[in-house]
Amino acid sequence: MAGRAQPGLSRFNVTALALGLGFLYLPIVILVIYSFNASRLVTVWGGWSLRWYVEFFNDQAMLAASWMSLRVAAASATAATILGTLAAIALSRGARFKGRTLFSGMLYAPLVMPEVITGLSLLLLFVAINVERGFWTVTVAHTTLTMCFVTVVVQSRLNSLDRSLEEAAMDLGCSPVRAFLSASLPLIAPSIAAGWMLAFTLSLDDLVIASFTTGPGSATLPIRIYSEIRLGVKPEVNAICTLFIALITLLIVSASLASKISSARGDNAARA
């Protein structure tokens, strides 16, 4: 109608949006800028320089911690993606079974469980079964943490797919497994990739659970950074954080694009 006010951004909305974005991202922007600071003092600007990036690549302890974090993140994300995808298929495509509600609740528990409780419970488990803490214990812990996120991503995509594609494939003689692999798996592949990248990012960022389950010689980068900043923030830490912010941003953008591609393919298949 002509007399109805058109929706738009008022001055108040713009101000609130600017304050919110500033509160969230201004500290990150400052960190990135000061990672190029030539001064040894974190809060004193001494000109533009790549000095601290060079320091990072010459710091063997930091490089070892970074490599450990990348290895743990890749291994745990891969395991979480496999297990989470299978769980999503069971919940979305499988017949209703006894204990489904309990299985679903236990699967999604890490989403709401405090990380301190999860880390402590895993530590007690590893101590009880006398497992030496190190790379594999951290990997198992991160798989436990991230599997539920992969399940949520993949299950939501499975629930939005038109099952008539699988039914048509079975009418043509395919078994249920082959029908799923041929008709549905290509459509959910971007969601599986998005789940992997989300799990990778969460593992790379974790400090609490890793601090409970790590052992000598297997400290991840967040643990190493935390131990360093307790003695004072070094400009090198700013450079490290900037590199990982860039990596995580790239993964998040890739995951978002993968989800959009998956949704677009599903919509096109449904129209066809």
What does the model show?
- The protein has 272 residues and is mainly α.
- It is 76% helix and 0% strand.
- The protein has eleven helices and no strands.
- α2 packs across α11 and α4 packs across α6.
- The longest helix has 37 residues.
How many helices does DSSP assign? 11
Architecture (CATH level 2) name of the largest domain: Orthogonal Bundle
* Uncertain runs: none
Cα(first) to Cα(last) distance is 36 Å
Tell me the structural class. mainly alpha
Number of domains: 2
What is Rg? 23 Å
Q: What is the helix content?
A: over 70%
Which overall shape is indicated by the principal axes computed on the Cα atoms?
Answer: globular
Question: What does the largest sheet look like?
Answer: none
CATH topology of the largest domain: MetI-like fold
CATH superfamily of the largest domain: MetI-like
CATH class placement of the largest domain = Mainly Alpha
How many beta-strand segments? 0
Kindly report the average pLDDT value.
82
Features of the shown structure:
transmembrane helix, MetI-like, MetI-like fold, 76% helix, membrane, 2 domains, mainly alpha, cell membrane, 272 residues, globular, Bact_Polyamine_Transport
Question: What is the strand and helix layout of this fold?
Answer:
Layout: H1 11-34, H2 51-58, H3 60-92, H4 100-112, H5 115-128, H6 135-160, H7 164-171, H8 176-205, H9 208-213, H10 221-229, H11 235-271
